[in-house]
Design a protein that fits this description.
mainly alpha, elongated, about 250 residues
């Protein structure tokens, strides 16, 4: 899974970079507009170690933000799975919070929390939270009729067992959703860094943009993509391991 994720990214990145260079040479654009392969190599040698550290900083924030959003989505999903007034209230409240665009809320966050770690963490969690919530709500609200019926007629069903049954039957979906939410968490962190933060790869991209240095942006995109591919591959592997362990328990 891990090597497949990395290989897929490398293919997509190479195709995109090749297309960019084809445009450069067809239109005879200068290196200032689109950097040459030599310029990209020189830039990567200059900034690779610093950008790698920036990406690791961003990835750490994204991972923590994703964990926070997963915990919150599971909590709301469990509380809102029942078709009761309380369950409906929980879902409506969660939907209403998401109705506000992040660009409208972000300035308030930066004013209250500053431009450091907490602001990036909160924005990352907010961006990847809602898709997770929708998926978890759907999974937790859908009964596994055959299995749950057996425990109901034997009087052994409890809400904890009900959740375990539904989670186990949909572990593949949960793995896919969690893996996909990593992209949103990373994107949310980079957006926060690009807007007003003072650290991370988003901040470095903002500086490169102000300097009109496309070669640095291309190097940054490579490091973002490769690190995210590795992380998503590890998430998918962990999901498969959990399913096998759970099934054999």
């Amino acid at each position: 899974m891990l090597h497949r994720r990395v290989l897929q990214f490398l293919i997509i990145y190479t195709l995109g970079l090749t297309l960019l260079l084809v445009v450069k040479y067809l239109l005879n654009l200068s290196d200032y507009v689109i950097p040459s392969p030599e310029s990209l190599i020189n830039t990567s040698q200059q900034v690779f170690s610093r950008y790698f550290g920036d990406v690791m900083d961003t990835l750490l924030v994204a991972i923590i933000g994703q964990v926070v959003s997963i915990c919150l989505a599971v909590l709301v999903g469990v509380l809102g799975r029942q078709t009761t007034w309380f369950g409906s209230f929980i879902k409506v409240a969660a939907y209403n919070v998401q109705a506000y665009p992040i660009v409208a809320i972000a300035p308030i966050i930066f004013i209250l929390l500053g431009d450091g770690f907490m602001s990036r963490l909160l924005i990352a969690a907010m961006i990847c939270y809602f898709p997770l919530l929708l998926s978890i709500l759907g999974i937790m609200s859908e009964p596994v009729v055959d299995v749950e019926h057996f425990y109901r007629i034997t009087g052994r069903i409890r809400w904890q067992l009900e959740i375990k049954i539904r989670a186990f039957e949909n572990i593949h979906k949960l793995t896919t959703v969690v893996s996909g939410s990593a992209t949103l968490a990373m994107a949310g962190t980079i957006v926060a860094e690009f807007m007003a933060a003072n650290a991370g790869i988003g901040y470095s991209i903002r500086i490169a943009l102000y300097q009109s240095d496309l070669s640095r942006i291309i190097v940054a995109l490579f490091l973002i993509g490769i690190s995210l591919s590795v992380y998503q591959g590890l998430l998918e592997f962990s999901g498969s391991w959990v399913k096998k362990t759970w099934a054999s328990a």
